[in-house]
Write a structure and sequence with these properties.
There is one protein chain. The protein is an all-alpha fold. 67% of the residues lie in helices and 0% in strands. Bound molecules: zinc ion.
Length: 145
């Protein structure tokens, strides 16, 4: 999981730098990091729902709580959000640095998760997870890292 987070961070910085270079506003970098790296903070919500308030970092990074609970919420992981942000960048081109950085960092995070976590391809659509009642067995080909 640490290598995955490292890759999310590097991808986010790269996207922020590209958007910053193209738009002339390098606030795109921290926004891309927020959207593409700190997105995984929603795993904490799942962890606390499944395990209560006691926190064990090794248990958290093992992802075993997904198996134990049988549910995968990760509420902020959703291609819908990335699509909305990118559409907003087209509606408000003067705010492209904001919405492109948030949208594309989010999008690439979800592409990475889809291809590297063994998910059934639409798993990272929030609406798909809702339709599957967040059931871990219906969303994953193998267990998430
Ligand atoms: Zn993720």
């Amino acid at each position: 999981m640490f290598i995955d987070e490292f890759i999310h961070f590097v991808l986010s910085v790269a996207i922020g730098l590209v958007v910053g270079k193209l738009t002339g506003n390098f606030w795109a970098v921290p926004l891309a990091i927020a959207s593409g790296f700190f997105l995984d903070a929603d795993h904490l919500i799942d962890y606390f729902i499944h395990r209560g308030w006691k926190f064990n970092i090794n248990d958290f990074f093992s992802g075993k709580h997904f198996d134990d609970s049988g549910k995968v919420y990760v509420f902020f992981h959703g291609f819908e959000f990335a699509i909305i942000l990118i559409v907003l960048s087209l509606i408000f081109p003067n705010l492209g640095w904001l919405f492109f950085s948030l949208g594309f960092a989010n999008l690439f995070h979800l592409f990475y998760d889809t291809f590297c976590n063994g998910a059934v391809w639409p798993t990272y659509f929030l609406t798909f997870r809702i339709a599957k009642n967040f059931d871990h067995k219906k969303l994953w080909i193998k267990n998430e890292k």
